Amino acid sequence: MSNPTLHDVARAAGVSYSTADRVLNERGGVAAKSIQRVQRAIQELGYRRDIRAANLSRRRSYRFAVFLPQGDHGFFSSLGQALLAQAEARAADRVSVTLCDPSRPDDAIREGGEWDCAALVGTESEGLAQVMAELTDRGIPAITLVSDIDGSRRGYVGIDNTVAGRTAGRLLRLAHGRGAGRILPVLGSLSLRDHRERLDGAAEVLAAPGSRLVLLPPVEVHDQPDRMRDRLDAALRADAGITGIYSIGAGNRGLIALMEAGGEGRPFVVLHELTPHSRAALERDLIDVVIDQKPAEEAARALDAMRAIADGEEPPAAVITPAIFFKENLPGVPA
Amino acid sequence: MSNPTLHDVARAAGVSYSTADRVLNERGGVAAKSIQRVQRAIQELGYRRDIRAANLSRRRSYRFAVFLPQGDHGFFSSLGQALLAQAEARAADRVSVTLCDPSRPDDAIREGGEWDCAALVGTESEGLAQVMAELTDRGIPAITLVSDIDGSRRGYVGIDNTVAGRTAGRLLRLAHGRGAGRILPVLGSLSLRDHRERLDGAAEVLAAPGSRLVLLPPVEVHDQPDRMRDRLDAALRADAGITGIYSIGAGNRGLIALMEAGGEGRPFVVLHELTPHSRAALERDLIDVVIDQKPAEEAARALDAMRAIADGEEPPAAVITPAIFFKENLPGVPA
DNA sequence: AAGAAAATGATTGACGTGTTTCTTTTTCCG
DNA sequence: CGGAAAAAGAAACACGTCAATCATTTTCTT
Hints:
Two copies of one chain form a homodimer. Chain A is α/β, with parallel strands linked by helices. Chain A has 13 helices and 13 strands.
């Protein structure tokens, strides 16, 4: 039989449907002997519960919360949009997503929210620990996005930031051929785990045998475009030998503006996240490489993982391979 | 109402459930006026049929066929495995996949197969046109994978091969810095559309202003490792100035063997598809870059598209962004 | 062995849609 | 106006599971 039902299982086990159901759904009150017989029948028949029928019956819906920092941050907003778009696309599966601001712990939405799973974007913001505690308190499982967090969580969806850093390092080395150079890393803050990991990854490759590149001490710009512009400008003036820039975090508008003003002979620039700004900068040869973590895919995987958890399964491993964009391989604008 | 049912629609339209059903499923025998009223109600309530309930009711299953060239071709076999694995993962959605050999037109499987949708891997093989005719004949919709095909098909899932070629070109330019060089393209056959597109993409970038690279005439090796090795060996001996190789198709075991034997001072090598061989070669510094079209993702998108078509929807656009792998950013071995 | 407790069986009505059959109402046409 | 045809309604069963209730049987306890 291609698709045995629970009735078939019950028959094969020599018990009633009720008993099979009690075993399957762990309702208790079943003799050990019967449990074994049912489980064996499940094994032998290769029974798998029809999730569609089950969800239909229990009027199941998937209510997910995503705690996403708000504000002027291109990547986060596009991740938010991708999440909402994905939820819309899965409306037939009764998936809904609520975006929450982690920095407002007493958010009304959060008060009333009854969620089946939550996702935390792992920037070490103030409210996040509080949110985690609250979720644990209420027994709501959580995964992390973008950057991992220590603590009890059920899975991580996002890129491997160390690998991303290594990628940047490799690209910088490629761009320098056999020549020497000085690379300036710019990041939001050293206290952010994802930034630190990227920096470490890059450092590893730049320090490897055969490299004639030097990684300078990182500049912290707190993801702010103006600060990015000022600090970077100062650093470039102070050290005329800088041949490469690795922008690890956000605030790249400031970097791009500087490159635009800078004239020819600019350093080789690698940065993260494909946004309208960075895309335009690539096209205009103001920067060289964009490493993108593909918010759309990340959103899809995040919902997959949260759904699996809500269904009581193990979330699938979801390490996203970041995309590398040059001027020449930009994706077509979706029609 | 969050999730209106067809009953709700019927009530809102002031007709019976039967009539609403007749309109929804286009069974005919409904007055134009009623059709309009029902459709308006669907619009206003934002009704969407619950596909799970619908599938449950009609005992729906998704039976897909994939026509995949067999034989000693790492990528195709990993794509095949990925497809089967994906089907297994979606067993709960009643998805099943049958792999067929396009070069055996009288295959027993193919004879008896009743499929809801098919996928054709678009290598211009002999049997493929016949398969397409057969499918059209039977009214089975089809999509293309890996390489597009002209003709009546409902969608394409895979990478943009022209963009992939441009990517290779850009990487080769990067690797040469401002220096000059001669690039040797190696491909299966110029009659294969995907190979041609990749070559064109690379040519475009290598011929762009500022480039000091020359793209040599392509060598055809018909995806065979020994031929790859022989032809490539001959070409490298004939032209000592070759500084880069772009391997567009398969048969890379021959290339890798040659690089291994070749000693130091080898050219910069870009090739396609991450396989155990190419991975090992990257790790051992025998080649430099692998452009991968991610068979697992391709399989997932292919099933998404086929399912959408089987459900009578428009398949989602699925242009996959190829991954670029260096030695430094190889994905971890899945645990 | 009687009674309590535990285990099991039997049955029922959802969930939202598909599908069929049969009846009733409306519309059309000569 | 009468009859046929078209349109609409009503009802039932199915799909596989969940969840609850109630009746029955088995097992355990004293």
